Amino acid sequence: MMQHAADHLNVDQQAYRPVIVYLNGDYWGIYNLREKLNEHYVASHHTVDADQIDLIEGYGSANKGTSTHYNRMRSYLEGGSLRSNTRYERVIRDYIDVSSFTDYHLAVIYFQNFDIGNIKQWRHRNDGTFRWMLYDQDYGFNLWPPEVYLPAMKRDFSDYNNMFEFYTNTSGSGTGWPNASGRTLLLRKMLENDSFKIQFINRCADLLNTDFESQRVVDIINEMASVIRGEMPEHLARWSWFSLLERNHGSPFDEEDVPFNTQQWEKNIDDLREFAESRPDKLRKDLMDHFNLKNGTCEIITTVEPQDAGHILINSITSQSLPNDRGIYFKGIPVVATAIANEGRSFQRWSNRETITRQITIDTTAPDQIHLHAIFD
Question: What is the pTM of this model?
Fold first, then answer.
């Protein structure tokens, strides 16, 4: 479900379909048929030679190729501040695909996956920059009950309530679990650069307005649950405590643990919906707290005239993808809007704005509501 929620993002995801498995006629229930994120995946999705890539897992383990370029990247990031645009420009030229990097980290932060060490990234050796793969996100969406895990993690390891704080931790040596400074190195260093920080914040706003908008994610949950709902009673019975004992498998869980029944399964689906419904507002608050944005948010409302003449590009998304043609953005973070004419049309002007250029930078400092009205011929 999390892979599907991110399927418009600039990261590699695994395709999925549920299948029913029988072994020698014996029913084994629902399995998830998914792509394997290896060099053959990269070759088939990106038309590159599988023998010409470096595929890195974790913090330097080469599943394919070598880790030489990856280690060079980490050394360069550790070696100086990226407040210098010269150093930052070298990073995005030689080491990091910024769009892929940004989307990957914002997805993990949105999912609230505190197990951040399960990373795969790859590069074509003739290209240089690493792209990220969405991999092993199972701790996200409150897999572990937050009322238990949030205080326990805060007490014993690290507080992941605000994932922006968690993902920029500077304490701890090496790449120790869950978020020692070696694990947070890349994002921490990139956020030293002001232009990247603005891009990162705006991309978060864009995604919360579109791909991670509550209703879209709830719809994905509902659709995916509906596909397997009819099979769940038999599947759950197959893996029940009593069924496992009858088959002499032993008991991998205790009888008094959370029951394997349809009522509990439906409750789990409800928990996913509740997370999806509350997550955008929570993430906006966490972002403002972390980046010290004290003035709150504003709403940008877009309209075009005539309606079929074009659309408005806001940062990285189109006005057509915004629910009800409006989105929430952070005050004090400039937003870039571009008028895009459809074929056979041309942009004329912005209503109530002096400039006639197609691209404008919007000052979001003061107003609670900003109207963007693009007029085409």
Answer: 0.96
